[in-house]
Amino acid sequence: MVLLAAAITGGATAQAQERPVLPAVAAADNRLDVRALSSLERQELQAEIDTVLAETDNGGVQISANEISWNGGEPILAFPLPGEIEAPPSSAAARAEGLSATVDVEPLVNWEQCPAGADDNRWYCFYQYSNFGGRRLQWNHAHCTTGIRFADYGFDNMTTGWVNTTKNAADVGMIVTVYDGWFTGTLWREQPWTKVSKVDPFHDNKASSFKACRK
Questions:
Q1: For the chain, how far is it from start to end, CA to CA, in angstroms?
Q2: C-alpha 57: how far from its chain's center?
Q3: Helices then strands (H, E): number in the chain?
Q4: What whole-number distance in Å separates Cα of residue 10 and Cα of residue 16?
Q5: How far from the centroid of its chain's Cα atoms is residue 7's Cα?
Q6: pLDDT tens figures, 11-64
């Protein structure tokens, strides 16, 4: 009996040692839908994040159980939680508005989970799947001169839908132009306060770069 108990205890210890430890920022994520995930689901989600961080290797930082940010939160890549179709509202965008990410986030994120807060906290978002599903890559800064490559953020040739929550005004509204190549081969232009749940099949999953210019 002693030997059997020791074997069981040893096996449980070995399994605990083999189980990867979540990063502190993921383990401390107290949102209710995150806390409801099983240990296996948490590990599956973390594996997705780790893969993108390894593939991009350009200063990305994990900021929650399901989000990566770059440049201090200028862009955020949000992953759906296991078993869900859409990525949840951005915890970082809520904090930028001074709101609680666990309680008050819904009034902020009011257009397909693309944040539409104050004038200086309006975003434009790209979605992996139709009907605004899958991963969501969101931005809230203009990039008119240099532009952005999707490959730098783990999103090359992955865009199926988009939302532009910026206002139609000279100081805050932005026109986003999306390209097939390196700022060549225009696929579409996004006007302020517009959205498309699924681009046409000819343009689907072909976006490689974009520029966002204030009006």
A1: 77
A2: 16
A3: 6, 11
A4: 10
A5: 44
A6: 544 444 455 689 999 999 999 999 999 999 999 999 999 999 999 999 999 999
